Amino acid sequence: MVANRLIEAAQPLVGQARSLLVRLWGGTTLGVRAMAFDEGRVLLVRHTYVSGWHFPGGGVHARETAEAAARRELLEETGYEAAGPARFLGLYFNPAMAGRDHVALYHVPVCSVRRAFIANREIAEIGLFPTNDLPEGTTAATRRRLAEMFEGLPHTDRW
Fold it and tell me: The pTM is what?
């Protein structure tokens, strides 16, 4: 019990340390984000180690396609399972990661909840929100991608 509490307490620091190491010494990184909807509401996550509401996502593993990573991250972080293939929406440069990070964004059709969400070391909470009533703290990148899709804002290449 004590060990689990220590691990949970240290998780935000571990995430920040990993980000710092990638910024300082890492090569180019590729991450994915899944823009998923259920009954017209967008599915967002709030991490334990970084502020704000984001699309579910994460890193692409070795020998894994970006599309498969988007579907995997959606399931791992939220418990929602994709109904079919994810559709590629764009590749974005993320300057916040010392000029090394790129984000592949996918539209993922949501089928159903495969397992109930339980808050964990990485994800504090998930939520489904109307695109015109996003929660306070929704990141600028998340808002921008939704505006590009629903309001006709021109596509940019920066996350």
Answer: 0.81
